[in-house]
Amino acid sequence: MNERYERGLARQAELGGPGATRARAYDALADIAPDLSRLAVEFAYGDIHARPGLDPARRELVVLGVLTALGGVEPQLQAHLETALNVGVRPAELVEAIMQALPYAGFPRVFAAMTVARRVLQSRDLLPVPPP
């Protein structure tokens, strides 16, 4: 293993591990694209996520906004919602971060993201979320 990969694994461990959702995504493609998960760990976590400048909670809020705006990335959104909770982002903050995407991403993408958030929060027995 190389230094970038080791740094990426260490960063994932700091964030609560790769998580079941992320691990399933990596494993599901191992037979067709075995290098994809290695590249994700090296680049996304070893290079980008490990940069200084933002604490893990703020970094996850940024990622949630981007994934919400992209749409169609529910597995990644779920993984980052789980990670955000692992690093101390409160449920109401998750909801608000997704709501902030509404003027830019539109109702369909925000509803889709909020549906994933509801599922994650429900799985952790964090519903209902009190209003801000």
From TrEMBL:
It comes from Bailinhaonella thermotolerans. PANTHER family: 4-CARBOXYMUCONOLACTONE DECARBOXYLASE FAMILY PROTEIN, GAMMA-CARBOXYMUCONOLACTONE DECARBOXYLASE. GO terms for molecular function: peroxiredoxin activity. It comes from the Bacteria. This is Carboxymuconolactone decarboxylase family protein. Residues 34-118 form the Carboxymuconolactone decarboxylase-like domain. Transmembrane segments: none annotated. InterPro entries: 4CMD/NDH-1_regulator, AhpD-like, CMD-like. The lineage of its organism: Bacteria, Bacillati, Actinomycetota, Actinomycetes, Streptosporangiales.
